[in-house]
Amino acid sequence: MKHIVCYLDFVSPYAWLAFEQLPQTLQGLSWQVSYRPVLLGALLQAHGNPGPLSIASKRDWLHRHVTWLGQAQGCGLQMPAQHPFNPLPLLRQALACSDDGSINRHVAGTLLRHVWLGGQDALEPGRLQALTQALQEQQRRTPQDEHNKALLRANTDAALARGVFGVPTFELDGQLFWGLDSLPMLRASMTGEHPLPAAA
User: Fold this and answer.
1) Residue 42 — φ and ψ, nearest 5°?
2) For 90-147, how does the pLDDT look when each residue is reduced to its tens digit (9 = 90+)?
3) In whole angstroms, what is the distance from residue 146 CA to residue 71 CA?
4) d(CA 101, CA 95)
5) Residue 154: how many CA atoms within 13 Å on its side-chain side?
6) Which residues contact 14 (CB under 8 A, 6 or more apart)?
7) Distance between CA atoms of residues 40 and 46, nearest Å
């Protein structure tokens, strides 16, 4: 069985699209995934990357593109009422369900659906309270606990040390695969069907 680490931030629509596409891409293979929440803004800042949303025309294209991709994939995607938004409350909520910085697929999916289905404000207080209730059985701590902040810092620092520069990024056997469109390459790495080019 292959172990994959998925670095994600819930502010990224591509994290939702890749999350939904991953089982189909890897169908027939033996694999398990550890989902690691990281702060995308910190990754971008560390690499001197302003990100696509800082350019108005690029932001408009991204919103159109991911909405179309959600329809094409059959998983749906509606832009939240406010985007971008500060993902810290959601990242800390996720990590309140973790002992070691990794979250399970149920927790990741619950948070991603909260953001990317329905077109509502991801940070509306009533919705955040409902999200906490939905994850109550998974929670180890309250979302405001300082340990969640420490886990997020540790995850983000570890991702930077591995060379992660964006989300979603999948790590397999020490190699990184960035983005939704890297999923076929990830499968190829697992099957050996198409040899991967050597890293620079």
Assistant:
1) -70, -40
2) 999 999 999 999 999 999 999 999 999 999 999 999 999 999 999 999 999 999 999 9
3) 38
4) 6
5) 13
6) 66, 167, 168, 179, 180
7) 10
Angle, in degrees to the nearest 10, between helices 183-191 and 13-25: 30
In one-letter notation, the amino acid at residue 40 is L
Q: Which amino acid is at 107?
A: V
Q: Which residues of 172-189 are buried (b: 16+ CB within 10 A; e: fewer)?
A: beeebbbbbebbebbbeb
3-state secondary structure the chain: CEEEEEEECCCCHHHHHHHHHHHHHCCCCCEEEEEEECCHHHHHHHCCCCCHHHCHHHHHHHHHHHHHHHHHHCCCCCCCCCCCCCCHHHHHHHHCCCCCCCECHHHHHHHHHHHHCCCCCCCCHHHHHHHHHHCCCCCCCCCCCHHHHHHHHHHHHHHHHHCCCCCCEEEECCEEEECHHHHHHHHHHHHCCCCCCCCC
Angle at 45 between CA 42 and CA 51, to 5 degrees: 100
- For residue 3, report the phi and psi dihedrals to the nearest 5 degrees: -105, 130
Superfamily of domain 2-191: Glutaredoxin (3.40.30.10)
Tally of CB atoms within 10 A around 129: 10
Which tokens belong to 40?
A: 């995308």
pLDDT tens sequence across 43-55: 999 999 887 788 8
Domain ranges (residues) in the chain: 2-191
The number of angstroms, rounded, from the C-alpha of 166 to the middle of its chain's C-alpha atoms is 10
